[in-house]
Specification:
alpha/beta, four-stranded antiparallel β-sheet, 9 helices, 27% strand, globular
């Protein structure tokens, strides 16, 4: 069995008096694909920010590649955190940059590649999501689905060991949603990466992964595979699943 690249132990986080995460624990093995599933405001996005080191935990630890990132010096954290990338829910593209410029951002910041090598990567990624003709367009010139695809390839440009996707198909029509899902699965398989996808949709979660982490009110209430969840003793888990089927 592959070694875990991500281990979360007793993670808790509060903002003001609101407890967002409460003693969250789980691990993810190298190359594994996991769906983080739960209703809106259940703590999924906050958990991802903790994994990225964007915000510190109040309690608990996050181990990336065996290192406790919250308690590492900044110069030792950076080489670890640069191996994890995230596609944010709203895409978070830079409006003042073209598609090419947006994808070049992580390549410029995190690699020492020559300009020609970076350009080749940008073109290869855009071809893989059928957007090479949009390379010189700006975000406002793209449809919602196109912006999602640009954000997707930007997150994968430096070939991270771990990729996080926060509601990657939200707000899209069914056909575009399926296209986005298939693109993520294709690219993650090609790059042999570990992948976590946060979603409110059980149907979408099934398309991404076999293993599910069920998050409700800041707690992991179930961690297992589809059949295990169908037979889960927690009524909230069974109700959430059956409503989404």
């Amino acid at each position: 069995m592959a070694d875990p690249v991500l281990v979360v132990k007793d993670l808790s986080k509060a903002f003001n008096e609101a407890q967002i995460l409460k003693g969250v624990s789980f691990s993810v093995n190298q190359g594994e694909h996991v769906s983080l599933v739960g209703p809106s405001s259940s703590g999924k996005s906050s958990l991802f920010k903790l994994l990225l080191g964007v915000i510190p935990p109040d309690e608990g630890t996050v181990f990336l590649m065996g290192k406790d990132i919250a308690h590492l010096a900044a110069d030792k954290r950076h080489p670890i955190l640069k191996q994890i990338e995230m596609q944010f829910q709203q895409g978070a593209l830079f409006d003042s940059m073209t598609v090419r410029g947006n994808i070049l951002v992580p390549l410029n910041e995190e690699t020492d590649l020559e300009p020609g090598e970076k350009e080749a990567i940008v073109c290869q990624l855009l071809k893989s999501v059928d957007l090479i003709d949009a390379i010189d367009k700006y975000p406002h010139e793209l449809s919602g689905g196109m912006r999602k695809r640009v954000a997707l390839v930007r997150a994968l440009a430096i070939r991270p060991k771990i990729a996080l996707f926060d509601e990657p198909a939200s707000g899209l029509d069914p056909v575009t949603s399926v296209h986005i899902v298939n693109m993520i699965k294709k690219l993650s398989k090609e790059q042999e990466m570990t992948m976590l996808v946060a979603t409110t949709s059980i149907h979408m979660a099934q398309n991404f992964a076999d293993r599910f982490l069920m998050l409700n009110k800041g707690r992991i209430v179930a961690d297992g595979y589809w059949q295990e969840l169908l037979d889960h003793p927690d009524p909230w888990v069974s109700n959430f699943i059956r409503k989404g089927i």
